[in-house]
Amino acid sequence: MSYDPKDMGPSLAWELRRLERQAELSFEAELRILEKLLTGRTPSRVLDLGCGSGAFTRRLRDAWPATTVVGADIDGDMLALVAEPTKLIGPDETLVHESESAYELIIIRYVAQHLSPESRGSMWARCRAALAEGGHVVVIDVDDSDWGTVQPQDHTLEPIYQRISAFQTRGGSDRSVVGHLPDELKAAGFIEVSRVRDHVASSTRPIDDFEPHLSPTRHAGLVVQKVLSLAEMARLAAAWQSVRSDPDAFISLNIHAVHATNPSQTTSVHTRPEGVM
Ligand SMILES: C[S@@+](CC[C@H](N)C(=O)[O-])C[C@H]1O[C@@H](n2cnc3c(N)ncnc32)[C@H](O)[C@@H]1O
């Protein structure tokens, strides 16, 4: 597991604020994805698996007040920040016990990139076992090959970002995990597997709302680890500053999700071709 909230930025408080601002920025688009997939029917029981500090859990509970949204995580300190109902789980623990009802929807947001392919395989199997027949899993995660656009562009920064990405990969993080998920979910026996994409853009949000994604503060630790020089860090900071102060700047960030359905016992297993919304 390549995620430790204490190591993701200058401090734990900083990372908690980043998670909050990230959820604030993209929740509307993510809710649109969920509601379109569920064709307007709100599920009654949902699991937010790997809910962290609950930035998404809380927003989903507000959006769907009649739904029970259970937040689950392996990190008890993060989970302590989430209002009940919550569930502290072991990394390979069953997600639903005999006395509990199955879930109609399991959401896994920005967790898969931090897991090894083996751990993800275990997660998909456990999700299937915890879902009602016909229940859905929605995985929201990163695809660095299709992250979006920032205008004005500064191509001279690309080698720096490539080095950051290579460092994250060496640390066990998969920044293009979304591309692997359809095959993994099909192999776990899910049906109707589809990739979904939406976006959030500065035409509807202030530029500063994109800070959790574009400010280099989260990479400050890479200077200490000698992945970046102080001069490179200063260049990233100057580039973000110049986007922020440019009245013609434009940012559009893509939100990637993969959806799959748990087959009912009577459903013959078939898959729909992958589509992009
Ligand atoms: C980047 S945080 C995302 C938190 C939250 N989903 C959000 O979007 O704000 C990743 C979370 O996944 C949790 N996690 C990692 N491996 C997990 C596993 N096997 N089962 C459940 N949670 C896991 C971590 O403890 C951490 O809280």
UniProtKB/TrEMBL annotation:
It holds the Pfam family Methyltransf_23. GO terms for molecular function: methyltransferase activity. The keyword NAD does not apply. GO terms for biological process: methylation. The keyword Transmembrane does not apply. Keywords: Methyltransferase, Transferase, Ubiquinone. It comes from the Bacteria. InterPro entries: SAM-dependent_MTases_sf. This is Ubiquinone/menaquinone biosynthesis C-methylase UbiE.
